Every structure is written in C-alpha cells, then in structure tokens.
C-alpha cells in the first residue's frame, strides 16, 4: 500500500497534495468537519498515488481492429 509513496512524483501530484493540505488547513480554521474529512482524503490520495482510476476502470481499452477497405459504389445523379 505504501510502495507508491516515494515513486512517480510529478507536478500534478504535488499540486493535488498542496491543494489537499490547503483545504484541510482552511477547514480546520473554519471548523467545518465535513471539509476536514474531505481535505484529509484529498491529501492522502496523492500521497498514496491513488485516485478514481487507480483500478484501471477508467482506462480506455486498446483494440486491434483490422482495417477493412470496402469498395464503395457511387451513382451519379443528374439534375434536370
């Protein structure tokens, strides 16, 4: 679970961590318990490098589709 803690840090992950910490601090200052819980969740997600797509459920599957070249017949329409 903690094997992703020090791997693959990039700008977006650091930004998510900073936003989670900021949200948690502001929620503690205002005393809003729901936002404290939300801020903690948003802080833990970049630390553990998890998100909504961590299970691969949001990824797009790659299909090997054979290219078919069907012959298309066109008919000329004459206007009167």
Uncertain residue ranges: none
Global mean pLDDT: 79
**What does the main sheet amount to?**
none
- Assembly context of the chains: single chain
Relative strand content:
under 5%
Helix/strand order:
HH
* Number of distinct helices: 2
Distance between the termini: 75 Å
Q: Class by helix and strand content?
A: mainly alpha
Strand runs, count: 0
- Which overall shape is indicated by the principal axes computed on the Cα atoms? elongated
Radius of gyration using CA atoms only: 25 Å
- The helix fraction, in percent, is 40-55%
Outline the structure in words.
The chain is an all-alpha fold and 80 residues long. The chain has a domain at 11-48. It contains two helices and no strands. The protein has helices spanning 11-30, 33-48. The chain starts with 10 loop residues before the first helix and ends in a 32-residue tail after the last helix. The relative contact order is 0.14.
